[in-house]
Amino acid sequence: MWHNNPLSSAYRWGLIATAIACVVVVLGAFTRLSDAGLGCPDWPGCYGHLTWPKSDAAVARAEARFPEFPVEHDKTWPEMVHRYFAGFLGLIILGITISTWRWSVKTPHQSYPRKHALGLLFLVIIQGLFGMWTVTLKLWPQVVTAHLLGGFATLSLLWLFTLRCAGTQWQLPGDKHRQLSGLKWLALVTLLVVITQIALGGWTSSNYAALACTDLPTCHGEWWPAMDFEHAFNFAQSIGPNYLGGLLENEARTAIHVTHRLGAIVVTVLVLLLSWKLVRLGSFVTRPIAWLLMLVLLIQISLGVTNILGSLPLAVAVAHNAVGALLLLVMITLMHRLFTAKSC
Is 68 a catalytic site residue? Predict the structure, then answer.
């Protein structure tokens, strides 16, 4: 799989895998937001097909086999395309893992992120199981959210793998390096808050709470509307029978939505503070990523507002997921640069 310099090849394959992971994340968002999560009621096939039933006879047989799930072609194909891209990504990660361990044996004097690759392989196997449970447990919110977080984790670890194989580092003068090191804790807290906000976004989506509030900056015309936090964040809720469309009452959905809004405010404050400190550092290597962070944040806020005021347009909602992933990747890049920076 790899030729010439193994680390250079690992970098190239990491880039390819990261690009495919981005496609998988976007396809997953499209599948979820277009209510196609149960477009195929079985797994890993679709109504017993390798792709999905197309002819009238195949559709008739499929509906006879699954009478509770009539075939909807606008929902079957997104689900199966997502599955095939995810499967292809899994094969690439398997190849990367095998190649990493093979080269580490052949050239033990070089450092290869083989444990990183093995962790990625384990994660993608778990992701496959969550993909199956998403269908078999009929969109149980806990599983849907975990599946989303697993997808973001796979994307993030693939990008980190790529950064590690690239081997590039920030070189800063001693005083600026010390100032940069002082930002590690703020960056770490910001990263954790971004991850938490992504989880809240997944919980909002899986519980169909995105349209629980349709006005801004208030919700139902109130700054603090009636909310049921107990049921909104009851992670021990029972399984089934079918969560398509959601089962929570309006006050519980409102609690989820408002919590996600509050999380967005916290993310905004922390990202702006971190970006400001990176700009103030006055280094030509830190300013670009600071401006990039602010730009991605601005786009993400704009998409979130458009989702609410526009009643969740599908393209905007999918873009909101994609830009959330981009914000996470920028934070991963910053963390890697912070912890590998050298003094010159």
Answer: no
